[in-house]
Specification:
Transcription Regulator spoIIAA, OB fold (Dihydrolipoamide Acetyltransferase, E2P), 19 strands, 446 residues, 33% helix, Rossmann fold, alpha/beta, globular
C-alpha cells in the first residue's frame, strides 16, 4: 500500500480532522510516511480564516503538484475550509490536484485517495444546510494529549468571519458520544484532553435535547457546558482538561466556580477580544462591549488569581481610527494578557465586512501590528519574570525542537517550560520544576 503525510494549516480543529483522516487511511491499509518528502500521498488541510492562510496553502499545493514531474504516481489532495469555500474553482488554480474534500468530510478522504490512485479526480463538499453526522471517535497514535471536537460550526456571524460559511451552523455532539470518546482516549493512555468548538461555551444551547433519529437514553442529552466539563473530569486517567475558544458571554458564575473547584480544569482560557474599541466591536458584531469583556476578565482573575488569559486581536479593521487602536492598546494593558495572537485584517469573500472599504493601508496595519507585538513582549516578559523561583507542575511533552538534550512541557496555565529531563522521564509524565529564568513566551529551569 501507499504511504501518506498531512500538511495542516489553521486551528486545532483542523489538526483533529487530519488525525481522523489519517486514522481512516491507516484502516484502509495505507501507512504513515516518515516524512513528507518520501510520501506517496500528501494531503493539505487548509484554513480560510485569513487570506494569508489560503495563500500559503495554494503555494504549498503548487509546489507539491510540481513534484509530480519526477513522481508521476504521487497523489496530492486538499481538504478543509479552503476546499469548501472554493469548490471546483480550486482545480482551475491547481490543475494537477487529485481531489478536494470540504469540511466535516474526513471520512471521504480515504475513498478520494483510492479514486486518485485509479486516475479519477474527486470533489466532495458538505451540504452545510443539513444537520451533520456526529464525528466518529477516532483514537490516533499513542500520545498523552488529544483533541476532542464537541461543537461544530458557528452561529455568531461576526462581520469579518467566514467560518459559518465553510463550517455551517452550530451543532453540539451528544454528551454520551463525547464522554465515550474521552473514555476511549483515557484507556489508550491519554492524560490531557482539549475540547474544541468555534464558540465552545455555546455547547448544548442550540441543539435538540436528543437525536430524533434515536430514542433518548441516559447520557444521550447535551449538557450545559460546565456540566460536560464535570463529566469529563470524572473520567479515570484524565489529568488535565483544556478547551477553546471562549467568548465573554460564557464566563458565567458556574464556569468560574468550576475553575476554582475542579483541579483537572487547567488554569488557562483563550478568550478572543479582537478589538478594545466598543465601536469597532459593534461593527464586528462581537456581541459585547469593551467594559463587558474587561468585567469577564476581572471576574476570572478575582476567583483564580493564577489563571492565564490569552487572546486574538485584529488590527486595521475597516474604519478603525487611531483612537480605536489606542483603545485596543489600553484594553490589552488592563487585561494583562499572558499572550496574544495579533493579525492584520484581510477581507474574506462573502463576509459582511468584505463589502466595506478596506480603508487602512497595509503599511498602517503593519505598524499597528508591530506596536501590539512589542507591547505584548514587554508584558509577557514581566509576567513570566514573576514566576522565577516558583515551583510549577509541568506535563512533559518530549525533546525540545531546538535542543534535543533539553525537553519542553506545559504548565496548567499553558506556559512553555524548557528543562533538563530527569532520568527515566517519559512524555506525558507530570513533573514539579522550579523556574530559574524567563523570556516573554518561555520559561526555563534546571
Amino acid at each position: 500500500m501507499s504511504t501518506f503525510a498531512f500538511h495542516t494549516y489553521g486551528c486545532q480543529m483542523n489538526v483533529r480532522e487530519s488525525e481522523a483522516a489519517a486514522k481512516a487511511l491507516l484502516d484502509a491499509g495505507h501507512t504513515e510516511a516518515p516524512d513528507e518528502a518520501s510520501a506517496d500521498i500528501i494531503i493539505v488541510n487548509s484554513c480560510s480564516v485569513r487570506g494569508k492562510a489560503e495563500d500559503k496553502a495554494l503555494g504549498k499545493l503548487g509546489l507539491l503538484c510540481a513534484t509530480k514531474r519526477e513522481r508521476p504516481g504521487r497523489v496530492v489532495g486538499l481538504m478543509g475550509c479552503m476546499a469548501q469555500r472554493m469548490g471546483k474553482e480550486i482545480f482551475k488554480k491547481i490543475p494537477l490536484l487529485d481531489f478536494a474534500i470540504g469540511t466535516r468530510c474526513a471520512d471521504r478522504v480515504a475513498p478520494a485517495v483510492e479514486a486518485a490512485l485509479q486516475g479519477r479526480t474527486t470533489l466532495a463538499l458538505t451540504d452545510l444546510h443539513e444537520r451533520p453526522d456526529a464525528p466518529s471517535g477516532h483514537v490516533y497514535g499513542d500520545g498523552f494529549s488529544a483533541f476532542v471536537t464537541i461543537l461544530l460550526g458557528c452561529n455568531r456571524r461576526c462581520t469579518y468571519c467566514i467560518v459559518p460559511d465553510v463550517r455551517g451552523d452550530e451543532w453540539s455532539r451528544p454528551a454520551r458520544d463525547v464522554i465515550a470518546e474521552v473514555r476511549e482516549l483515557a484507556a489508550h493512555g491519554v492524560k490531557e484532553v482539549t475540547l474544541l468548538g468555534q464558540s465552545i461555551m455555546n455547547y448544548g444551547l442550540r441543539t435538540p435535547a436528543f437525536d430524533e433519529q434515536d430514542p433518548p437514553s441516559p447520557g444521550g442529552y447535551t449538557l450545559p457546558f460546565p456540566r460536560l466539563l464535570e463529566a469529563v473530569a470524572a473520567i479515570d486517567g484524565i489529568e488535565r482538561i483544556r478547551f477553546t475558544s471562549g467568548h465573554p458571554s460564557g464566563v458565567t458564575d458556574e464556569l468560574i466556580r468550576l475553575y476554582r473547584e475542579e483541579p483537572k480544569l487547567c488554569h488557562h482560557l483563550h478568550l478572543p477580544v479582537q478589538s478594545g474599541s466598543t465601536e469597532v466591536l459593534s461593527r464586528m458584531r462581537r456581541g459585547y462591549t469593551r467594559e463587558r469583556y474587561l468585567e469577564a476578565i476581572q471576574k476570572l482573575r478575582d476567583a483564580v488569581p493564577d489563571i492565564a488569559i490569552t487572546t486574538d486581536v485584529i488590527v486595521g479593521f475597516p474604519g478603525e481610527t487611531e483612537a480605536d487602536f489606542e483603545a485596543t492598546r489600553t484594553l490589552m494593558a488592563a487585561a494583562k494578557f499572558d499572550n496574544a495572537f495579533i493579525f492584520k485584517y484581510s477581507p474574506r469573500p462573502g463576509t459582511v465586512s468584505a463589502t466595506w472599504e478596506d480603508d487602512i493601508s497595509d503599511a498602517e496595519k503593519a505598524r499597528r501590528n508591530q506596536i501590539l507585538l512589542g507591547d505584548q513582549d514587554v508584558r509577557g516578559a514581566q509576567q513570566n519574570q514573576a514566576l522565577v523561583g516558583q515551583t510549577v507542575e509541568v506535563l512533559a511533552e518530549g525533546p525540545s525542537l531546538r535542543n534535543k538534550a533539553r525537553w519542553s512541557g506545559r504548565t496548567s496555565s499553558n506556559k512553555i517550560v524548557i528543562f533538563t529531563p530527569p532520568e527515566g522521564i517519559r512524555p506525558g509524565d507530570l513533573v514539579k520544576l522550579t523556574i530559574t529564568k524567563a523570556a516573554p513566551q518561555t520559561l526555563y529551569t534546571e
